[in-house]
Amino acid sequence: MRFPFALSAKIARHIIINKIRRTDKFALVLQLEPLHTCNLTCTGCGRIREYSTNLKDMMSLEDCLGAATECNAPMVSICGGEPLIYPKVEELVRGLLEQGRIVYICTNGMFMRKKMREYLARSYSPSQEPALKQLLAQKLLTEKEAAEIRKGKNDGRPGIAPSKWMYWNVHIDGLEYIHDLIVEREGVFKECIEAIKMAKILGYQVATNCTVYKETDMAEIEQMFDFLSHLGVDGHTITPGYEYDAAKKDMIVRLNKKPEDFFLTRKLTREKFKNIIEWGQKYTFFGSPIYLEFLAGQRDLHCTAWAIPTRNIKGWKAPCYLMTDGHFDHYQEMLEKVDWDKYGVFDGVVRDPRCENCMTHCGYEPTPSLGIDKQAGDTWKLIKYNFGARPSPVAGAAGVNVYNGVTAGRGHLTGKREAVQANVLRVIADREVAAALAAGKTGNGCDQ
Question: How many domains does the chain divide into?
Answer without folding.
Answer: 2
